[in-house]
Amino acid sequence: MDSEFMNEIAQRLAALGVGVVRFEFPYMAERRVGGGKRPPNPQKVLLECWREVYRQVRPLVTGKLAIGGKSMGGRMASLLADELGADALVCLGYPFYAVGKPEKPRVEHLAQLKTPTLIVQGERDALGNREAVQGYALSPSIEVSWLVAGDHDLKPLKASGFSHAQHLQAAAERVAEFLLN
Question: What is the domain range of residue 30?
Fold first, then answer.
Protein backbone atom coordinates (compact mmCIF):
# COMPACT_ATOMS: atom_id res chain seq x y z
CA MET A 1 0.00 0.00 0.00
CA ASP A 2 2.95 2.32 0.36
CA SER A 3 4.95 1.34 -2.70
CA GLU A 4 6.39 4.19 -4.71
CA PHE A 5 3.65 3.71 -7.31
CA MET A 6 0.83 3.77 -4.73
CA ASN A 7 2.29 6.77 -2.90
CA GLU A 8 2.62 8.70 -6.15
CA ILE A 9 -0.84 7.93 -7.47
CA ALA A 10 -2.53 8.58 -4.10
CA GLN A 11 -0.80 11.97 -3.79
CA ARG A 12 -1.71 12.92 -7.34
CA LEU A 13 -5.34 11.87 -6.83
CA ALA A 14 -5.57 13.77 -3.53
CA ALA A 15 -4.25 16.91 -5.27
CA LEU A 16 -7.14 16.52 -7.74
CA GLY A 17 -9.75 16.19 -4.99
CA VAL A 18 -10.05 12.40 -4.82
CA GLY A 19 -9.74 10.84 -1.37
CA VAL A 20 -7.87 7.55 -1.25
CA VAL A 21 -7.93 4.80 1.38
CA ARG A 22 -5.23 2.17 1.08
CA PHE A 23 -4.88 -1.21 2.77
CA GLU A 24 -2.75 -4.32 2.51
CA PHE A 25 -3.74 -7.90 1.93
CA PRO A 26 -2.60 -10.20 4.76
CA TYR A 27 0.35 -11.64 2.84
CA MET A 28 1.75 -8.16 2.22
CA ALA A 29 1.35 -7.21 5.89
CA GLU A 30 3.24 -10.40 6.79
CA ARG A 31 6.10 -9.31 4.53
CA ARG A 32 6.51 -6.19 6.67
CA VAL A 33 6.82 -8.22 9.85
CA GLY A 34 8.85 -11.17 8.65
CA GLY A 35 10.49 -9.70 5.59
CA GLY A 36 11.07 -11.65 2.43
CA LYS A 37 8.66 -12.56 -0.31
CA ARG A 38 5.44 -14.34 0.45
CA PRO A 39 3.03 -15.69 -2.15
CA PRO A 40 -0.40 -14.07 -2.33
CA ASN A 41 -3.13 -15.42 -0.09
CA PRO A 42 -5.72 -17.69 -1.71
CA GLN A 43 -8.37 -15.76 -3.63
CA LYS A 44 -10.99 -16.53 -0.96
CA VAL A 45 -8.85 -14.75 1.67
CA LEU A 46 -8.16 -11.79 -0.63
CA LEU A 47 -11.86 -11.35 -1.39
CA GLU A 48 -12.84 -11.55 2.27
CA CYS A 49 -10.20 -8.95 3.09
CA TRP A 50 -11.73 -6.65 0.45
CA ARG A 51 -15.22 -7.22 1.87
CA GLU A 52 -14.05 -6.36 5.38
CA VAL A 53 -12.31 -3.17 4.24
CA TYR A 54 -15.45 -2.14 2.36
CA ARG A 55 -17.62 -2.81 5.44
CA GLN A 56 -15.33 -0.59 7.51
CA VAL A 57 -15.01 2.25 5.00
CA ARG A 58 -18.56 2.47 3.57
CA PRO A 59 -20.10 4.08 6.70
CA LEU A 60 -17.34 6.73 6.75
CA VAL A 61 -17.99 7.95 3.20
CA THR A 62 -20.85 10.38 2.65
CA GLY A 63 -20.66 10.51 -1.14
CA LYS A 64 -19.71 8.08 -3.86
CA LEU A 65 -17.40 5.22 -2.98
CA ALA A 66 -15.29 3.69 -5.70
CA ILE A 67 -13.18 0.61 -5.13
CA GLY A 68 -10.19 -0.60 -7.08
CA GLY A 69 -6.48 -0.92 -7.00
CA LYS A 70 -3.27 -1.70 -8.78
CA SER A 71 -2.89 -5.04 -10.54
CA MET A 72 -4.18 -7.91 -8.36
CA GLY A 73 -5.87 -5.46 -5.95
CA GLY A 74 -7.90 -4.11 -8.84
CA ARG A 75 -8.68 -7.59 -10.09
CA MET A 76 -9.98 -8.66 -6.68
CA ALA A 77 -12.05 -5.47 -6.48
CA SER A 78 -13.49 -6.22 -9.93
CA LEU A 79 -14.71 -9.59 -8.69
CA LEU A 80 -16.65 -7.86 -5.88
CA ALA A 81 -17.74 -4.51 -7.32
CA ASP A 82 -21.26 -5.60 -8.25
CA GLU A 83 -21.73 -7.68 -5.08
CA LEU A 84 -20.71 -4.77 -2.84
CA GLY A 85 -22.75 -2.21 -4.75
CA ALA A 86 -19.72 0.03 -5.24
CA ASP A 87 -20.44 3.28 -7.07
CA ALA A 88 -17.47 2.78 -9.37
CA LEU A 89 -14.41 0.61 -9.97
CA VAL A 90 -10.94 1.85 -10.92
CA CYS A 91 -8.16 -0.54 -11.94
CA LEU A 92 -4.61 0.57 -12.62
CA GLY A 93 -2.61 -1.95 -14.62
CA TYR A 94 -5.26 -4.67 -14.70
CA PRO A 95 -3.82 -8.22 -14.92
CA PHE A 96 -5.89 -9.53 -17.83
CA TYR A 97 -3.73 -12.67 -17.81
CA ALA A 98 -0.72 -14.04 -15.93
CA VAL A 99 2.73 -13.23 -17.25
CA GLY A 100 3.37 -15.24 -20.39
CA LYS A 101 -0.14 -16.76 -20.44
CA PRO A 102 -2.26 -14.60 -22.74
CA GLU A 103 -4.08 -17.78 -23.82
CA LYS A 104 -5.62 -17.96 -20.31
CA PRO A 105 -7.35 -14.59 -19.84
CA ARG A 106 -8.97 -13.64 -16.53
CA VAL A 107 -11.84 -11.75 -18.11
CA GLU A 108 -14.97 -13.91 -17.91
CA HIS A 109 -16.53 -11.82 -15.12
CA LEU A 110 -15.71 -8.58 -16.94
CA ALA A 111 -18.24 -9.35 -19.68
CA GLN A 112 -21.15 -9.03 -17.21
CA LEU A 113 -19.79 -6.32 -14.90
CA LYS A 114 -22.44 -3.67 -14.17
CA THR A 115 -20.41 -1.26 -12.03
CA PRO A 116 -19.10 1.77 -13.96
CA THR A 117 -15.44 0.88 -14.46
CA LEU A 118 -12.27 2.62 -15.58
CA ILE A 119 -9.17 0.60 -16.37
CA VAL A 120 -6.00 2.62 -16.95
CA GLN A 121 -3.61 0.38 -18.85
CA GLY A 122 -0.22 0.70 -20.50
CA GLU A 123 -0.27 -0.21 -24.18
CA ARG A 124 2.59 -2.68 -23.71
CA ASP A 125 1.54 -4.11 -20.35
CA ALA A 126 2.90 -7.67 -20.09
CA LEU A 127 -0.35 -8.65 -18.32
CA GLY A 128 -2.68 -7.15 -20.90
CA ASN A 129 -1.38 -5.22 -23.89
CA ARG A 130 -3.62 -3.23 -26.21
CA GLU A 131 -3.75 -5.86 -28.94
CA ALA A 132 -4.79 -8.67 -26.59
CA VAL A 133 -7.34 -6.62 -24.64
CA GLN A 134 -9.08 -5.38 -27.77
CA GLY A 135 -10.02 -8.99 -28.49
CA TYR A 136 -11.91 -9.46 -25.20
CA ALA A 137 -15.66 -9.14 -24.76
CA LEU A 138 -15.83 -6.51 -22.02
CA SER A 139 -19.01 -5.11 -20.50
CA PRO A 140 -20.21 -1.76 -21.90
CA SER A 141 -19.78 -0.40 -18.35
CA ILE A 142 -15.98 -0.73 -18.75
CA GLU A 143 -13.83 1.99 -20.26
CA VAL A 144 -10.16 1.27 -20.94
CA SER A 145 -7.89 4.31 -21.02
CA TRP A 146 -4.58 3.53 -22.75
CA LEU A 147 -1.25 5.15 -21.97
CA VAL A 148 1.18 5.27 -24.88
CA ALA A 149 4.00 2.71 -24.62
CA GLY A 150 3.23 2.16 -20.92
CA ASP A 151 4.10 -1.05 -19.08
CA HIS A 152 2.31 -2.69 -16.12
CA ASP A 153 3.41 0.17 -13.86
CA LEU A 154 2.38 2.67 -16.57
CA LYS A 155 6.06 3.45 -17.20
CA PRO A 156 6.60 4.39 -20.86
CA LEU A 157 9.49 3.63 -23.15
CA LYS A 158 11.91 6.57 -23.32
CA ALA A 159 11.45 6.67 -27.09
CA SER A 160 7.75 7.48 -26.57
CA GLY A 161 8.58 11.01 -25.49
CA PHE A 162 6.65 10.58 -22.22
CA SER A 163 8.02 10.27 -18.69
CA HIS A 164 6.70 8.03 -15.94
CA ALA A 165 5.66 11.14 -14.00
CA GLN A 166 3.64 12.34 -17.00
CA HIS A 167 1.89 8.99 -17.29
CA LEU A 168 1.10 8.89 -13.57
CA GLN A 169 -0.32 12.40 -13.80
CA ALA A 170 -2.36 11.48 -16.87
CA ALA A 171 -3.67 8.41 -15.04
CA ALA A 172 -4.61 10.46 -11.97
CA GLU A 173 -6.34 13.08 -14.12
CA ARG A 174 -8.30 10.43 -16.00
CA VAL A 175 -9.35 8.74 -12.74
CA ALA A 176 -10.39 12.08 -11.19
CA GLU A 177 -12.40 12.98 -14.30
CA PHE A 178 -14.10 9.57 -14.21
CA LEU A 179 -14.96 9.74 -10.51
CA LEU A 180 -15.83 13.41 -10.10
CA ASN A 181 -18.06 13.86 -13.15
Answer: 4-180
